[in-house]
Amino acid sequence: MEFSRIADYMQASLTGKRLRYITRSCELVDLGLGDIITRRNRFGNDTKVATLSLHLQCPFRITRQSGILIGSDDLFVSSSSAGNVVDLGMQNTCVFDDKLELLHELFTDESVVRVSVNSCGDLSLQLTTLNISVFCTGSTENEMWRFFETGTDKPHIIRTGIGFDS
Fold first, then answer.
1. What residues have CB less than 8 Å from 105, skipping those under 6 apart?
2. DSSP states of 113-140 as a string?
């Protein structure tokens, strides 16, 4: 899919969708948007997930007028409850986890107003009162971010350091 079609598709898919959650698994951050559906996970258990997912594996930040609320660097700073140890394989060991807990209510009251993607793959989601900025900083085939519709066979939009895959 060419760049302009990707930008248009993401704008059409995300505009008006509610931010449902932000979670992480290791250093992958998952933004769940849209409606909530029940889906069977790989262990056979029913779980509630958003219909749209944006996975981030590159630098990002979430801001509002007062400044940065949370960002990717917070993944690598030890939580006060974890002492000096950051273990991304476990929850509640980094500042990112602490801030997610504090900001949960704020995040889930937000909806997407506008989406923009530039030719380098940088992504901006303007929400009701927040802005999510995603920065592609690599130049290799490593995945930077991925956007997809949960539970469908539709292709994923994948941004690497060298371009878009789908």
1. none
2. EEEEE-TT--EEEEESS-EEEE-----S
Sign of the CA dihedral with 37 first, then 4, 145, and 122 last: negative
- For β-strands 143-149 and 19-25, DSSP reports them as unpaired
Q: Which of 78-92, 94-108, 151-165 has the lowest mean pLDDT?
A: 78-92
- How would residue 81 be classed by pLDDT, with cut points 50, 70 and 90? low
Contact 57, 27 (CB under 8 A): yes
Nearest one of 143, 90, 105, 92 to 22, comparing CA atoms: 105
Percent of the chain beyond pLDDT 70?
Answer: 96
Per residue, what are the HEC states of 3-16?
Answer: HHHHHHHHHHHHCC
Looking at the whole model, is its pTM more than 0.90? yes
Q: Biggest alpha carbon distance in the chain?
A: 47
Residue with tokens 């994948």: 158
**How many angstroms separate the CA atoms of 145 and 133, rounded?**
12
User: How does DSSP assign 47-86, residue by residue?
Assistant: EEEEEEEEEE-S-EEEEETTEEEEEGGGGGSB-GGGTT--
- Higher-confidence residue of 116 and 104: namely 116
